[in-house]
Amino acid sequence: MTLKTDTLGWLLNLQVGLSALCIFLPRKIRLPLWFSVLPLAVAILITRWMAVDHPPMRNLFEAFLWLPPLLTCMTLYSKWRDQTDTSRLDASICFIVAFPLAFVFSATISRLPPVLQSPLFVPHVLGYMISYVLLTRAFALECLKQSAAARENAAWGFAFISLSLALGSYWGNEAWGAYWQWDPKEQWSLATWLIYAAYFHLQHRRKWRVTLLGVGVLFILLTVTWINLSKLFSGMHSYAGV
Question: Which has the closest alpha carbon to 139: 129, 149, 150?
């Protein structure tokens, strides 16, 4: 664990601190403080984008930079949609994401490989990031017994993960000449999709809802960490490390 001391690093440290504060502060103070994370998160994205000269999605560090602004936008949506305050929940998820960004993941700049220089690069990766946030929120909301909100998040998350999986298959055919290679990342993405497909067939029973949403989040974590980073699972997506 290392402290990043450049401009990007201090912005990331501030993001961690604000997210942590928002978990514990009362609502009246928490909401404006949490919404201040949005311009900060956008500034972080712009700083990284200018440094690497391509959309910051090259690796796990860069992809995770998109999660804090997505979480703040989802808080705004929940407040607009049904006046629900999800700021503490979203700040908690943001802290879990922001901590490794600031102190664990490497911010080393890497050149964008030719295979990623495609118009499908941004929608494919961003679609997965949106789906991961929505599906994580769905599990958390179900644990808090907010089933209607959990189903809505799961439905949108499933739509985005389906779109990203389809885009990835189309892109794979363009880049490697086949729609499906049984690459470890592809297999785990499909397994995650199947878990959430099962959720929609069994959601009439709460025990199944909680279990499948929880297993889905576990599969997401395994896909973006163990499968993505472990040397045991080398494949077509091995370039997408930390």
Answer: 150
**What distance in Å separates the CA atoms of residue 169 and residue 91, rounded to the nearest whole number?**
33
* Residue 104: other Cβ atoms inside 10 A: 11
This model's pTM is above 0.85: yes
pLDDT in tens, 146-173: 999 999 999 999 999 999 999 988 888 8
86: left (phi over 0), alpha (psi -120 to 50) or beta: alpha
Domain spans in the chain, listed from the N-terminal domain onward: 1-112, 113-234
Q: Which helix (H) or strand (E) holds 194?
A: helix 184-202
At 50-73, the pLDDT tens digits run 999 899 998 889 999 999 999 999
CA angle 38/226/105 to nearest 5° reads 45
